[in-house]
Write a structure and sequence with these properties.
mainly alpha, 18 helices
């Protein structure tokens, strides 16, 4: 346990920082009675959704855990490295993921009215301080709880095949949290925008619109709880891939164990660096929130890189994989490649989705020609944005492999994710700022307050796009690391393209992200259809609603989104679990091909959908700032339609794809012994 003390203490420090942040948020003024009432409605809706979602996920977790525990008995192979210990690790991973999401969402929904009040009292700096504190609760909860849970599992069991179950549990919860949250928020958002802003010509977040509360709830369950579960999964899986590859490939038991523990030490340094980055944002965030947020991210990344060098130089050792020996600093250079690629992917995402740059401004200009041109141009922006990130990922993979073999690729993934606490904090801040603007509108506060929150929200859209780019880039690395670990566990030395099983798997795997996306798109459409019908019904049947003389029935809209999200997430979620199991039982080589195909198409599709949606969203906001006719203009109406197309792309489909490829990879790794012919 002594070797894990640094990671343990860093995780505890992260939890203590979370406690401080929670206190800092809750001590703030929540505003007047109207603001508190609106905030409470969002809190109740978010809790109700997560309670129902987690109840369904819990049943699935227990069923899968039982099958894992009984696997040696069911297969008649008592030596199978599954059983009750892997089952316990699996359940713990699921619990940690769900708990981190719930804690972060709970504080985010309590911070929204407090951010609005802080904008009244302290302007941009005051509002930014509350919003980043709330987002940091999610970020630091994810990193600290994930690391502490992994330390506990490793300390108790000490066997990588058992520890793999922890990642599988986190991955399963992440898929349902991301997909379910995305379905909830986009169904509500599309209904609110298409009926409210386009048909009824009322402002965004207008209190007369019954879907507005559901939209605000969705921001939290999708972009706070869902995002946290997503990056918690990547964070855990990149560490576990490093451990699995070190255990399986590195010659010498003592050397192997030292390499397995390196990610724990770097994770601890990343948590401390993230704390410093968050403090940096809170101290310097004055007139330029985006500069403060990005500066904090770069501070955390730089400190982690420096700490990684010191840790690896002192604790690392030369190691041999096959016939090749790598130097002590090989893992550091691989980690640095991951950090650098993460920064580049974030910058590219910012360029293609921020209104400060030409792609979004040209997209806004094209909206003058109608909605069809907006959607076409937005799709083109997303497609174009895939080029640089994919090239960077390819270069990083080659560099990482050159310096540390397959172990290096897994370390590159972890290098990108070592500052997960900071990345999630910056991303989760966005929904808090968005909700604060909604409360300012619904409470009919001074327009100056809404202007402050809109400024923070616009920055939040850009940081969210950066976070999504970061998530899909890290997913690619993590999935490659897990795929490599699976192939080693399954005894596959190479995915032979002349093997028809591999080729068939490759084709099927390439198709899966598209088929998965189609199910999510269809589910969003169903929720939005029901939401539009309900909003129209209330405008039509509730006397005085459009005149502001009656209150809308927001609870019905929340219930529509909840039921639709739960129903819509089950089929794609079960498919993600069942397909790798079915293919692996058929042929372990075909499964290797399937995973390769899914990674290749999934990464590209994930980047394209996230950036297309982000660009269309910010093009709409750029017009709303007074460009090309401003709110109510033909360009604005076209941009709103473009945004409703882009929203499920960036908030439902894109984020869910990266979880799909990781979940299939980690399931394959955990069950690899079951797939071996004669195993």
């Amino acid at each position: 346990m002594d070797q894990l003390n640094v990671a343990l203490l860093s995780g505890i420090a992260g939890i203590l920082f979370v406690v401080y942040l929670v206190w800092d948020v809750l001590r703030r003024d929540p505003g007047n009675e109207t603001m508190v009432s609106i905030s409470r409605s969002v809190q109740e809706g978010a809790r109700a959704f997560l309670k129902r979602e987690y109840s369904y996920v819990a049943i699935l977790v227990l069923v899968v855990a039982a099958l894992i525990a009984l696997a040696p008995t069911l297969t008649g192979n008592p030596n199978l490295p599954l059983g009750w210990r892997t089952s316990i690790a699996f359940i713990l991973g699921a619990v940690v993921s769900a708990l981190a999401g719930y804690v972060g969402m709970s504080i985010a929904t309590r911070a929204n009215s407090r951010t609005t009040q802080a904008a009244i009292d302290g302007g941009v700096r005051g509002a930014l301080g509350v919003a980043i504190s709330a987002g940091s609760v999610m970020g630091m909860s994810v990193a600290s709880m994930a690391l502490l849970g992994l330390v506990l599992v490793y300390w108790v069991f000490r066997e990588p095949p058992i520890v793999n179950g922890y990642a599988m549990g986190a991955s399963l919860v992440a898929l349902f949290a991301r997909a379910g949250g995305g379905l909830f928020t986009k169904g509500a958002d599309m209904g609110a925008d298409l009926v409210g802003k386009v048909e009824a010509n009322i402002p965004e977040d207008d209190p007369r619109n019954p879907a507005v509360i559901a939209d605000n709830v969705g921001d939290n369950v999708g972009d706070v709880a869902g995002l946290g579960a997503d990056l918690l999964e990547s964070y855990v899986e990149s560490m576990i891939a490093s451990m699995a590859l070190a255990a399986a490939l590195v010659a010498g038991a003592s050397v192997s164990e030292r390499l397995m523990l390196l990610p724990f030490h770097i994770a601890g340094a990343g948590i401390l660096a993230s704390i410093i980055g968050i403090v940096f944002v809170r101290v310097v965030g004055r007139r330029n929130p985006q500069a403060a947020l990005m500066g904090g991210t770069y501070v955390a990344a730089t400190l982690t890189a420096i700490a990684g060098y010191v840790i690896i130089r002192n604790l690392g050792v030369p190691f041999t994989i096959g016939d090749h020996t790598y130097g002590v600093l090989g893992p550091f250079y691989a980690t640095l490649a991951g950090i650098a690629s993460g920064v580049v992917i974030g910058l590219v995402s910012e360029f293609f989705t921020s209104a400060r740059f030409s792609p979004v401004r040209k997209l806004a200009e094209s909206s003058q020609m109608g909605a069809a041109i907006t959607v076409t141009s937005g799709t083109a922006v997303g497609m174009q944005s895939t080029a640089v990130p994919i090239l960077v990922l390819g270069i990083a993979v080659v560099v990482a492999h050159h310096f540390a073999g397959m172990y290096g690729i897994a370390m590159a993934a972890f290098g990108m994710l070592a500052t997960t606490g900071m990345v999630v904090a910056v991303d989760s801040y966005g929904p808090v700022a968005d909700n604060a603007g909604g409360i300012a509108e619904m409470a009919k506060l001074d327009p100056k307050v809404r202007k402050i929150t809109d400024n923070l929200d616009a920055v939040g859209n850009t940081t969210a796009a950066i976070g999504k780019g970061f998530a899909i880039g890290s997913a690619a690395f993590a999935a490659i690391g897990l795929l490599s670990a699976y192939m080693v566990s399954a005894g596959i030395t190479v995915a032979d393209m002349s093997d028809p099983h591999v080729m068939a798997g490759l084709l099927v795997g390439g198709m899966l992200p598209f088929f998965f996306s189609s199910m999510l798109f269809g589910a969003v459409s169903k929720v939005a259809f029901r939401m539009i019908e309900e909003v129209r019904r209330q405008f039509r049947e509730i006397p005085g609603l459009l005149e502001g003389k009656a209150r809308p029935d927001s609870a019905t809209c929340v219930d529509i989104s909840t039921k639709g999200a739960i129903a819509g997430m089950l089929r794609p979620g079960i498919m993600a679990i069942a397909v790798p199991v079915a293919v692996g039982l058929y042929d372990e080589r075909a499964l290797a091909g399937l995973l390769v195909g899914a990674v290749v198409t999934g990464v590209v599709l994930g980047i394209q959908t996230a950036n297309s949606g982000g660009a269309m969203d910010n093009a709409k906001k750029y017009i709303e700032d007074g460009n090309y006719g401003g709110k109510g203009s033909d360009a604005h109406k076209a941009a709103v339609i473009g945004d409703t197309v882009g929203d499920p792309l960036k908030d439902t489909v894109g984020p869910s794809i990266n979880i799909l490829i990781k979940l299939m990879s980690v399931i394959s790794l955990v069950l690899a012994p079951l797939f071996l012919r004669g195993g």
